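Here is the promised in-class demo. Please do not try to memorize the tokens; focus on the logic of going from shape to residues.
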């Protein structure tokens, strides 16, 4: 019986693109007697130690192809550092091997200064999601990520908890009326929003980015697909917070999660392709191709990345302003933080570029929001400035199932049941975003007690996400 494994799954294991994927698929298409799980295990082993399978009757061709690929070295080949510094890791026992291996590779880059792995980490492309990497004068597009400047934004209203439950229908109406989701979706005509970000000079200085302006304007104030959301919930302050000037109590709050939409994704794809052309790294590290900050290309990407970050912030600002007007409420506090970005920071006395791919800035006193899932609480936190973590924390609970795994293993009735048990009303979202697809947020928070202090807890009650199964465009 054939074991159904597709090319995307093989790529996710870390296999290089190209003919090797075809070789792996051909092996799987034959009657080899292995179960799906056994095949996946073999693929991982062959990828890690191909020399052990050179004479294997099933996997020899794949092993030889991998060895040949690893020996390909163009004239401008950049060697990895075979004696890298160690990286700090939090909650390591609950982090998958794929994420660890990606972090180990990132530490071998000749430009790497330091690294850290957050407790919500899981495998991504290039730098793992939940990975923090400090580099010397170099910027890595895939170290930033595809959804540049993706962020959390929180508005805490002067509305008591009881008012929400007495007026849930009104909150639901305003949520539907003032948010829009889905890859490619945007506003048209009179429904478009305006914002100062559209006048940013980078649009005029960079012809590639200039061509993205119309799409950016259309999508301004929208939330995209994937795991992005707009939700109402109850924010509980267990004690007075003098810094925010909020007394102990429970308040209605709006929490949003989204990024730079199609513009950011297009910028990421464009400059990653360029980086791979000018920075020839070994196959295992090719998605970590970097741009020298002293070059025009490095400066181009840096400016485009910052524009995308400002644009993502503008999208949140528009959503929160619309909701504030619709509710007629007073905002007691606003907090915003972003991930999938790079910052110039001082670390160990030198200026470095700190990439936080799915990681939250957590410098001393810096506020941040770390969400759980649609049924698990999120937390308003204040950073402790832990240097070993490069002043960072997790950006959420982190996935414990891939989207494909979640769709295969979670039923609609199971998802409906858990939403009901937690009193959560969901608008949109597919099984790939089911709460069970995520790690235990309490476990994640426990693993980073040295990194952040919890200020307040956010409990989701009304959640809206894309309902078309789309990822970011």
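The designed amino acids, position by position:
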């Amino acid at each position: 019986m054939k074991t159904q494994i597709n090319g995307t799954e093989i790529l996710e294991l870390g296999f290089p693109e190209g003919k090797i994927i075809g070789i792996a698929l051909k092996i799987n298409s034959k009657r080899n007697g292995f179960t799906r799980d056994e095949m996946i295990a073999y693929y991982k082993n062959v990828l890690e130690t191909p020399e052990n399978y050179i004479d294997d009757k099933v996997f020899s061709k794949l092993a030889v192809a991998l060895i040949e690929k690893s020996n390909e070295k163009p004239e401008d080949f950049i060697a990895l550092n075979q004696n890298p510094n160690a990286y700090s890791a939090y909650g390591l026992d609950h982090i998958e091997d794929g994420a660890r291996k990606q972090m180990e590779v990132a530490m071998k880059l000749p430009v790497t200064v330091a690294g850290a792995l957050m407790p919500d980490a899981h495998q991504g492309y290039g730098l793992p999601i939940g990975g923090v990497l400090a580099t010397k004068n170099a910027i890595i597009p895939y170290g930033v990520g595809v959804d540049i400047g993706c962020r959390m934004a929180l508005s805490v209203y002067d509305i008591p908890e009881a008012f929400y439950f007495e007026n849930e229908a009104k909150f639901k109406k305003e949520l539907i009326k003032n948010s829009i989701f889905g890859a490619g979706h945007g506003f048209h005509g009179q429904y478009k929003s305006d914002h100062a970000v559209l006048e940013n000079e980078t649009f005029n200085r960079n012809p590639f980015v200039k061509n993205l302006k119309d799409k950016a304007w259309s999508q301004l104030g929208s939330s995209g697909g994937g795991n992005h959301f707009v939700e109402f919930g109850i924010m509980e302050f267990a004690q007075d917070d003098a810094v925010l000037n909020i007394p102990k109590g429970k308040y209605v709050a709006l929490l949003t999660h989204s990024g730079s939409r199609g513009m950011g994704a297009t910028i990421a794809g464009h400059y990653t392709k360029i980086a791979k052309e000018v920075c020839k790294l070994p196959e295992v590290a090719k998605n970590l191709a970097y741009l020298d900050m002293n070059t025009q290309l490095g400066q181009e990407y840096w400016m485009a990345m910052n524009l995308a970050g400002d644009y993502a912030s503008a999208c949140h600002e528009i959503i929160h302003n619309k909701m504030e007007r619709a509710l007629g409420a007073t905002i007691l506090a606003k907090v915003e933080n972003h991930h999938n970005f790079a910052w110039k920071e001082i670390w160990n006395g030198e200026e470095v570029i700190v990439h936080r791919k799915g990681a939250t800035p957590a410098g001393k006193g810096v506020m941040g929001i770390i969400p759980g899932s649609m049924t698990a609480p999120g937390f308003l936190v204040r950073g402790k400035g832990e240097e070993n973590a490069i002043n960072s924390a997790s950006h959420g609970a982190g996935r414990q199932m891939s989207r494909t795994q979640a769709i295969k293993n979670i039923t609609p009735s199971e998802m409906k049941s858990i939403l009901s048990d937690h009193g959560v009303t969901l608008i949109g979202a597919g099984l790939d975003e089911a709460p069970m697809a995520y790690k235990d947020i309490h476990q994640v928070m426990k693993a980073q007690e040295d990194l952040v202090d919890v200020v307040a807890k956010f409990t989701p009650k009304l959640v809206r996400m894309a309902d078309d199964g789309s990822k970011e465009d």
